[in-house]
Amino acid sequence: MSAKDQFTQTGKVCEIKFDELGDIMLVIASLAGTARLQVNSTVLCIASPVFRAMLGPNSFPKETVDLASNNRNHITPLIIPLEDDANALAVILSILHLQFNWLPKPIVP
Questions:
Q1: Across the strands, what pairs with 13?
Q2: Do 23 and 77 meet the contact criterion of CB atoms below 8 Å apart?
Q3: What span, in angstroms and rounded, lies between the C-alpha atoms of 21 and 66?
């Protein structure tokens, strides 16, 4: 199922599940509302050295410890707040999670 099919919007909260079994929920708050993006930590670690440093198996930040605990106990996804452009990040996450049908149409000059 694609991210577009899993898109829900309630009030000022927009949630996209790029991976229904994703172990991380990226949360981006803005004046327009809150975006909640459920993703897979393995996909993020493969794609980004920043996420790999933060979430990889040899990392020591708090997020890694929390993620390992969540995975062991099979509880809800680890929530990681971000300060970012939610729309731009959603496009990047669509590509990383192979959800190409959710991408915006090409911009034609």
A1: 10, 34
A2: yes
A3: 17
